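Good morning C.,

I know you're traveling, so I'll keep this short. The sequence:
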Amino acid sequence: MERTALTTAEPFDDRTPIYQQIADRVRHAILSGDLQEEAQVMSTTQYATTYRINPATAAKAMSTLVDEGLLHKRRGLGMFVCPGARDLLRTRRRATFWDDSMRPVLEEARALGITTDQLVDYLKEQP
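The tokens, ready to paste straight into the viewer:
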């Protein structure tokens, strides 16, 4: 089994708790396909060392992801991405996409006088 680590060692911001930021990074890696099903995730010790954080912070992030059904622990081996985790994330994100992401864009477009046809044309032009 190949061990997969997130290679982005970007600093954390001050707006949200670090454990949430770690969980978000793992979610993003699963959603983007950088972390495949059954891929091993960095251990809490590796996270603590890589990001210079308290191991308990990394453990809280992993626990959150386990509770969400995205990761599972294999005793003595570590944490792994659950089968179906990517589909689960997609389903959850699609449920909130329109209200959380598109509604503010549409409101801003209307305020700027951008028509629905212009928005559609723009979207069609994108790769």
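Safe travels,
E.
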